[in-house]
Structure formats: structure tokens, C-alpha cells
Write a structure and sequence with these properties.
Blueprint: E1 11-16, H1 21-29, E2 36-41, E3 44-49, E4 52-57, E5 64-69, H2 75-85, H3 92-100, H4 113-124, E6 130-131, E7 134-135, H5 146-155, E8 159-162
Antiparallel strand pairs: 1-2, 1-5, 2-3, 3-4, 5-8, 6-7
Helix pairs in contact: 2-4
Length: about 160
């Protein structure tokens, strides 16, 4: 297992390339290279996956692409948002909406990974993000799979260059 040194008190977003069948299916269906997204801060991961919204200790894996988030996105705000969502379930309906392009097929009290990350970032930026002239505060984050989230953050200049691991 490789060791990676991330800077203390620096907020990162991590995108996973698929390793298992479900990840490959997500990446294939969404026409992207990523199957999961999560935050890393001070050796802790803040995520939502089929285990729900929770935190765990960071362990570097070779399929990760890690990016430092813009300094305007305060880690304290991300953690504050996380605390409001912690323990909530995984948004299986939102995932189905991704696959079937359904209009707002989601549970507003649950999150899938990229939906959680985008809503947390929008919270940290005082709900100033928009997509197709709509406020993300209107919970349209369900439209973002991990690859689309990556492209959106890159276009909005909210992530820096990939960390050299």
C-alpha cells in the first residue's frame, strides 16, 4: 500500500476510477472515467455510498484522483453540512434517475456520492452555484454523477491541478 501525504488543514475532493463491476457500470453508463466522489480532510473521508452518509479514516488507493478544492470552500462549512447529513441513507432513487434520465427521481433526505459533494460545496459557498440557470439550492444536484461533478468543478475553477502522488 502506497503512502500519500496530504497537507494538514487542506480540503480535498477525491474521485475514484472504477475497480469493481458496479463502478465500471456507473462509469460506462455516465460516459465518464469516475464512479465515486468524496471529501478528504485531515486524514478523514466524508462520503456517501451504499453505507449512507458517514466518515472513515483515509486510505490511499491507486484508483484515486485527488484534487485540492478552492480556498473559498471552507472545510468547516463542508463538515457543518456533513453533520446535517450524517447518518442519512444512500439515494438509490437518485441513482436510478441518473440511469433512466428521470426528472427528479430522488429522495430529498438521502444522498449519493456526487450529489452529497455538490450540495456540500454549494452550502459552503452560500448557495451561489448554478447549473443551466438554476440554483443548486433547489436540490438539482441529483443530475450530477462523479464525472459530471469533476467537469463542473473544473469548469468553475473550484479544483486545482491533481495532486502528484
Amino acid at each position: 500500500m502506497e503512502q500519500v501525504k496530504l497537507k494538514k488543514d487542506t480540503l480535498y475532493i477525491c474521485f475514484h476510477k472504477p475497480k469493481r463491476l458496479i463502478g465500471h457500470l456507473i462509469a460506462f453508463w455516465t460516459l465518464g472515467k469516475y464512479s465515486h466522489a468524496e471529501f478528504i480532510y485531515n486524514n478523514q473521508v466524508f462520503l456517501s455510498n451504499p453505507g449512507g452518509v458517514r466518515t472513515q479514516k483515509f486510505k490511499y488507493l491507486k484508483n484515486m484522483d485527488i484534487y485540492e478544492l478552492d480556498s473559498n470552500i471552507d472545510a468547516k462549512d463542508i463538515i457543518e453540512f456533513f453533520k446535517t447529513a450524517q447518518g442519512k441513507g444512500y439515494d438509490y432513487l437518485g441513482i436510478l434517475g441518473q440511469f433512466f434520465y428521470a426528472n427528479k427521481v430522488q429522495d430529498d433526505d438521502r444522498y449519493f456520492c456526487s450529489e452529497f459533494c455538490l450540495n456540500a460545496i454549494d452550502y459552503a459557498l452560500q448557495f451561489t452555484l448554478t447549473y443551466k440557470l438554476k440554483s443548486l439550492k433547489d436540490r438539482i444536484g441529483y443530475q450530477f454523477n462523479p464525472s459530471k461533478l469533476f467537469k463542473y468543478l473544473k469548469n468553475m475553477e473550484l479544483i486545482k491541478e491533481k495532486e502528484v502522488i
